[in-house]
């Protein structure tokens, strides 16, 4: 009797429909958990890239005003790009009129940057504000992409 059962088991090839269904359900559960987590990581990295770009603009504005000997209240991001103080290959689309201002001895950036559907709005934010994600830094992760 035992030999007959063993022979039957040896002849069995492939998987049953139930086994296949169980594997598909398990893979579906894993996907449901992993996809939102990965999307959040991608969104966070885009926001961090925009913040990094903003800090670069603040540092470039400080360097621009010191090296050029300009005594002003601020400089536009476009002017910093035109004067080659910032490389514009960062992939961030900045709002028109975005600028770095000098307020009470501190450089602050005012404007919004966007990568795909992620936008960071900076309202007179210092480097410390950007790093701390203060009240004047807002991250929107589902806006219409810029063209």
Keywords, please?
4 helices, 22% strand, six-stranded antiparallel sheet
**Tertiary shape:** rod-shaped
Total domains, how many?
1
Helix amount, in percent? 40-55%
- Contiguous uncertain segments of 5+ residues: none
Number of extended strands: 6
**Strand and helix order:** HHEHEEEEHE
Textual characterization of the structure:
This protein is α+β, with helices and mostly antiparallel strands and 147 residues long. The chain contains 4 helices and 6 strands; from the N terminus they run H-H-E-H-E-E-E-E-H-E. The protein has one domain (16-132). Strands 1, 2, 3, 4, 5 and 6 form a 6-stranded antiparallel beta sheet that branches.
Q: In a nutshell, what does this entry contain?
A:
InterPro entries: Bac_GSPG_pilin, N_methyl_site, Pilin-like. The chain has 147 residues and is of the alpha+beta class.
Topology:
Blueprint: H1 2-11, H2 17-68, E1 74-76, H3 77-82, E2 93-94, E3 99-103, E4 106-115, E5 118-125, H4 127-132, E6 137-140
Antiparallel strand pairs: 1-3, 2-4, 3-4, 4-5, 5-6
